[in-house]
Design brief:
alpha+beta; 313 residues; 8 helices; 3 domains; Heat Shock Protein 90; 56% helix
Length: 313
């Protein structure tokens, strides 16, 4: 009789142990699923009746709900902030455009500029500062729209080699003002990618502005393709950055202290990377020729999947 009682007691505790072990395994599995995506309204369920475990799960679910609410509030505040930036940037664009228009008109029509060198130089400075402000406002506007998910890209087959050539021709004055030695190697034949032409133009413009602002002596631009991808590289030298800056160059508002007097917001590269990723591309940066005794050489590489492989004759 004693053996039967002991067997029953042993069986009961064995069952309890195995039940609790099973419950912990199921709960662990559920926690891993929840960790993958905290935005889903998942909660932990108790697979077996157990008062102590139920109290633990209730506390966990309560904490989880608090985290979700805080995350939702943060996202709501962030979206509202981005919308405010977008609205302010949009409001600033119109007066800046008017100012630049009047400056160009004055330069064309005012005969005194031909005689007054000091006045002509002052107008040049004003125009340059206004152009810089226009670029900064455009970067804020693009960044806020990308973060708010309002950019609205429409992807089509685009000849990226042609877009790059046109961007270089249209913005050559940026590099000309910086007195850089320019090397360009772009294939003559079309290279097709799935992208939006205006977004590609913005990426190239931001990289050109970055080189114009920070490059010391040269900029090399090249485009190559393999069986699947097209690679576009912008290589320039600079003394303003170090290898420690590399992981942060695409962070929003990141600017190395020695480069702050060059102007800018630290958003140009961030916007370029976000646009590339929105179109399924990649934008990366690396240091090349590290053993050079002179300034570091930075290589920005853009990669897109090819749509059509051109058979060269």
């Amino acid at each position: 009789m004693l053996y039967i009682i002991l067997a029953i007691i042993g069986g009961y505790f064995a069952f309890r142990y195995l039940s609790i072990l099973y419950a912990f395994r199921e709960i662990t599995k559920d926690i891993r699923e929840i960790q993958k995506d905290l935005t889903q309204n998942q909660i932990l369920h108790l697979p077996i009746p157990n008062r102590d475990l139920e109290k633990v799960l209730c506390s966990f679910n309560y904490t989880l709900e608090g985290i979700r609410k805080e995350r939702q509030n943060y996202e709501k505040r962030e979206k509202g902030f981005q919308k405010q930036i977008e609205n302010i940037s949009h409001d600033l664009r119109t007066p800046l455009t008017v100012i630049l228009g009047y400056l160009k008109l004055i330069k064309k029509t005012d005969k005194e500029l031909n005689m007054d060198k000091e006045l002509a130089e002052a107008l040049e400075i004003i125009e340059h500062k206004a152009e810089t402000m226009k670029i900064l406002v455009a970067q804020f506007y693009d960044f806020s729209r990308l973060n708010a998910g309002d950019f609205g890209l429409t992807l089509n087959n685009v000849d990226i080699s042609r877009t790059l050539k046109e961007s270089l021709m249209g913005n050559y004055q940026i590099l000309e003002r910086s007195h850089l030695a320019i090397e360009v190697n772009i294939p003559e034949h079309p290279i097709w990618v799935m992208a939006e032409d205006s977004a590609l133009v913005r990426i190239f413009l931001n990289l050109l502005q970055n080189a114009g602002r920070y490059a010391d002596s040269f900029l090399r631009i090249s485009m190559k393709e393999d069986d699947e991808n097209v690679l576009i590289s912008f290589i320039n030298d600079t003394n303003m950055l170090s290898e420690d800056d590399i992981p942060h160059l695409f962070n929003r508002f990141y600017m190395q202290d020695s480069s702050r007097n060059q102007g800018g917001t630290g958003l140009g590269l961030t916007v370029a990377k976000l646009l590339a990723e929105e179109m399924g591309g990649i934008l990366e940066v690396s240091i090349v020729d590290k053993e050079s005794l002179n300034s570091e050489k930075y290589k920005f590489t853009i990669c897109f999947k090819l749509c059509i492989k051109v058979i060269k004759k």
